[in-house]
Amino acid sequence: MTDWGIFQEILERLKPLLKEKYFPIVTAITATRNKEETEYLCSTGISSVAFNLEIWDEKIFNDICPGKTRRIGRDRWIESLKEARDLLKPARALSSFVVGLEPRESVLAGIDYLSSEGIFPIMSPFIPMVGTEYEGKEAPKSGWVWDVHERATEIIYKNLPEAFCDEIWDGDIGICPSCTTTKLFFDFMRRIVPRENPRRVMSNESVEAFV
């Protein structure tokens, strides 16, 4: 069975549960290969999709993400995000960037483009993890990370204010802003729209339904 076939099997098992009781789920997967796959994915009851580009600059994207280039391609990746945008609630098509592997203006250009297209870009700082090919690579300076996050969230607020709504903050995209690798990004979001910690609470019934 192909990877997509295995994924479909999982979604088919989830569909009756999601019809019975809504539960926010984000599918962070490789971008779809065609519109039919996008339509199927968005019809299953999931709350959001995350087709993560990681890098905006086309040359750096091809160098760092050769598998994504080979299997899907950057243009199709962006097209799949636009398809999902049209099928889900506002700001429920997401794409994450790893901040620190491309120039500042490049990642901000990607943030501006995607958010102006109704796609919610989120960010995580680059961390040179031990045991990876990038072990030893210099991490971005804290001031640089601060500036990028500050400017990026201002751009998103201007282009896609729906990303700052109560539903998303309370976890409707399937991501808890207080317990994710993108926590720093969400902290910058609430510098623009002040927030308490999310009110999302998982009931025992919700947990049991998915065990």
Provide an overview of this structure.
The longest helix has 18 residues. This protein is an alpha/beta fold and about 210 residues long. The protein has one domain: TIM Barrel. The C terminus is likely disordered. A four-stranded parallel sheet has the order 1-2-3-4.
Number of strands: 4
Instruction: Round the Cα radius of gyration to an integer and report it.
Output: 17 Å
CATH homologous superfamily (4th level) name? Aldolase class I
- Tell me, briefly, the overall form: globular
Low-confidence stretches: 206-211
Distance between the termini: 24 Å
**What is the annotated CATH architecture?**
Alpha-Beta Barrel
| Secondary structural class | alpha/beta
Biggest sheet character: 4 strands, parallel
CATH class (first level) name:
Alpha Beta
As for the CATH topology, it is TIM Barrel
Give, in spatial order, the strands making up the sheet with the most strands. Answer: 1-2-3-4
Mean pLDDT: 89
Approximate strand percentage:
5-15%
Percent of residues in helices: 40-55%
Count the domains: 1
